[in-house]
Specification:
Alpha-Beta Plaits, about 70 residues, alpha+beta, 2 helices, globular, 4-stranded antiparallel beta sheet, hydrolase
Length: about 70
């Protein structure tokens, strides 16, 4: 079973940033998909909650150089 979360992304400057975030997220075991929309500054992540959690997703985005807040 997968879970979807939406993240508000700060510090994005261009569409290449959005692509970078998607690549960084999808390179991790447990993440099924990541779709970042530069214009809306949002990332939708579909992941396996048995493998990783929201805190780990936030860490991955931070490691890529961006600030993320869970969009609730």
């Amino acid at each position: 079973m997968t879970k979807k979360t939406v993240w508000k992304i700060l510090d994005m400057h261009c569409t290449a940033c959005a692509i970078n975030i998607d690549f960084e997220l999808e390179d991790n075991h447990g993440i099924k998909s990541a779709r970042t929309n530069y214009a809306k500054a949002l990332t939708e992540v579909e992941f396996d909650p048995e493998v990783l959690d929201e805190k780990k997703i936030e860490e991955i985005i931070k490691k890529a150089g961006y600030t993320a807040n869970l969009n609730t």
